[in-house]
């Protein structure tokens, strides 16, 4: 019996030793190797200040946006304008700041429209004492008055900036505001050179109301039209205003004047279905009529009427279930009302195509992963797709004569479709 106990005890010891050895063999990595570890994160700390005064800015929304790999993270500055991104995945990032009274801005950007510098963050990096200088906006304010000096309520004031395209210099909208009951307006815009323009909302909305009574004669009707600061009805007479960071431009008052306008009446063809709205689109690049579009409703009997149309050449455009249609022959308004117009509406132009990268058999690889030469790096802006990809590329037209610039963004396969081509 003692011998049997000893044998059983020895067998138990051997079994336990074997189990321990098996467990070690399945959990311990081979000698000379290390288990995979997640790369350490990076740290970004600093403060946000006003570029002009140097004062710290609390409640500033900050975003680290990856330019390629990485993860978008966000935070907000504290009472002393300080911020911290404690655990940032390695990668290259854009730091973006935004606050009330300041334009959205990229770190080290010279203006609200420049990307500035990226932050390359390696594993374990600690970027401290970073100073982000936000450029304060410009405050523009004033009144919109009529020819007698009385306030005009619900007028729309737009701040325009000149942009340079291949077709030449064009005005583009930057910000807009509406006047209150006392005719006052105010807006906050980034520093720059601006042309201010006022439009009477009441005049613009005339065509959307019920059809007005037919004028008693062929005489023109007087109505407020687009006015450029201080009191020009044409952009050639506009006075541009230079605004520096943090400046206040007060007393930017408009004195609107009435001009001769006319009506355009007609009927859409009976074969035309499901069109409820029409718009007169001015030809040429003039902003005078472009920012004060004339729109009207199509009545149940297919009739329509535009009110307050200033002299010029126009295309008539409709938007319905079948898409956007437009007249190819211009409608010219001279010195009289137009009656009995029957427009011939045809679909607007459309262009489709594909963008491919030279040297690639297909826009993207078969697995959907862009093919990129080894060691290559992207130099594009924030939020872009990986190098070698053809997704997210803007393709468009730059008109020389009608002021339109239709464009489209390429899809993952590089295909695009540009519509609304005049």
Count the strands? 31
Task: Name the assembly state.
Answer: single chain
Name the helicity range.
Answer: under 10%
Percent strand equals 35-45%
Could you give a short account of the major beta sheet? 6 strands, antiparallel
Please state the CA-atom Rg, rounded to the nearest Å: 33 Å
The structural class is mainly beta
Distance between the termini: 107 Å
Low-confidence stretches: 1-28, 363-387
What would the average pLDDT be, to the nearest integer?
78
Shape: flat
H/I helix tally = 3
Describe this structure in words.
The chain has helices at residues 2-27, 201-205, 287-290, and strands spanning 42-50, 61-66, 73-76, 82-88, 91-99, 102-106, 119-121, 126-134, 138-145, 155-165, 168-178, 184-189, 192-200, 221-224, 227-228, 241-243, 248-249, 254-255, 258-267, 277-282, 294-297, 303-309, 312-320, 323-327, 331-333, 338-341, 345-347, 349-354, 394-396, 407-409, 415-421. The protein is flat. It has three helices and 31 strands. With 422 residues, the protein is mainly β. Strands 20, 21, 23, 24, 25 and 27 form a six-stranded antiparallel beta sheet that branches. Strands 2, 3, 5, 6 and 7 form a five-stranded antiparallel beta sheet that branches. Residues 1-28 and 363-387 have low confidence and may be disordered.
């Amino acid at each position: 019996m003692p011998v049997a106990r000893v044998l059983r005890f020895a067998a138990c010891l051997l079994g336990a030793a074997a189990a321990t050895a098996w467990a070690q063999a399945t959990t311990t990595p081979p000698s000379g190797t290390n288990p995979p570890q997640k790369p350490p994160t990076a740290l970004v700390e600093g403060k946000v200040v006003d570029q002009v005064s140097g004062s710290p800015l609390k409640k500033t929304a900050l975003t680290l946006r990856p330019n390629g790999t990485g993860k978008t993270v966000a935070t907000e500055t504290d009472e002393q304008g300080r911020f911290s991104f404690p655990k940032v995945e390695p990668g290259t990032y854009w730091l973006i700041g935004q606050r009330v009274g300041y334009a959205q801005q990229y770190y080290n950007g010279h203006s609200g429209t420049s990307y500035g510098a990226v932050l390359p963050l390696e594993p374990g990096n600690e970027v401290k004492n970073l100073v982000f200088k936000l450029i304060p906006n410009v405050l523009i304010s004033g009144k919109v008055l009529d020819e007698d000096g009385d306030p005009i309520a619900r007028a729309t004031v737009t701040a325009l900036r000149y942009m340079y395209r291949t077709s030449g210099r064009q005005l583009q909208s930057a910000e807009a505001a509406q006047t209150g009951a006392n005719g006052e307006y105010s807006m906050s815009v980034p520093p720059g050179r601006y042309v201010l323009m006022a439009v009477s909302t009441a005049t613009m909305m005339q065509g959307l109301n019920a059809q007005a009574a037919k004028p008693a004669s062929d005489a023109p009707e007087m109505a407020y039209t687009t006015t450029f600061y201080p009191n020009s009805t044409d952009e050639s007479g506009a006075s541009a205003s230079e605004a520096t960071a943090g400046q206040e431009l007060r007393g930017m008052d408009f004195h609107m004047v009435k001009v001769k306008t006319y009506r355009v009446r007609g009927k859409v063809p009976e074969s035309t279905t499901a069109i409820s709205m029409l718009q007169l689109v001015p030809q040429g690049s003039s902003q005078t009529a472009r920012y004060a579009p004339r729109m009207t409703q199509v009545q149940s009997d297919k009739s329509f009427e535009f009110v307050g149309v200033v002299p010029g050449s126009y295309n008539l455009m409709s938007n319905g279930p079948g898409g956007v249609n437009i007249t190819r022959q211009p409608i010219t308004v001279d010195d009289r009302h137009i009656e009995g117009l029957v427009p011939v509406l045809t679909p607007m132009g459309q262009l489709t195509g594909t963008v491919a990268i030279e040297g690639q058999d297909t826009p993207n690889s078969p697995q959907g992963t862009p093919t990129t030469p080894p060691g290559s790096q992207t130099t594009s802006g924030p939020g872009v797709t990986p190098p070698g990809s053809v997704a997210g590329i803007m393709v468009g037209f730059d008109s020389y004569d009608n002021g339109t610039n239709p464009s489209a963004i390429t899809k993952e396969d590089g295909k695009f479709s540009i519509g609304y081509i005049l």
